[in-house]
């Protein structure tokens, strides 16, 4: 049986990679991928603690997070398409002209 500390280290690693990607990249598609990594880290935590405590609550919440991530990707791809159509690129620093 794998100890829960391994799952927590995996989750912390995924979250740190996602956070580093958000803080250092300018591409909107990479932002979406990094947010997905951070959500996956949360899912690993939910499932690990659910398995440790012997109930299914964390796994059910994990399914809700996956559904939320799918909706977030749909909205995010729409925003990326608008960025590309207006600015001929997906660099988020160019989108400051979209303000009022």
From TrEMBL:
Its main location: membrane. It is found in: Membrane. The keyword DNA damage does not apply. One of its GO terms (molecular function) is oxidoreductase activity, acting on NAD(P)H. The keyword Transmembrane applies. One of its GO terms (cellular component) is NADH dehydrogenase complex. It comes from the Archaea. GO terms for biological process: ATP synthesis coupled electron transport. This is NADH dehydrogenase subunit K (Ubiquinone).
């Amino acid at each position: 049986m794998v100890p829960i500390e391994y799952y927590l280290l995996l989750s912390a690693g995924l979250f740190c990679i996602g956070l580093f990607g958000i803080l250092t990249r300018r591409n909107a598609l990479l932002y979406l991928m990094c947010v997905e990594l951070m959500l996956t880290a949360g899912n690993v935590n939910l499932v690990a603690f659910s398995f440790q405590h012997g109930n299914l609550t964390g796994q059910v919440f994990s399914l809700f997070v996956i559904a939320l991530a799918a909706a977030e990707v749909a909205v995010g791809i729409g925003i990326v398409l608008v960025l590309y159509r207006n600015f001929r690129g997906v660099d988020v620093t160019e989108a400051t002209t979209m303000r009022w």
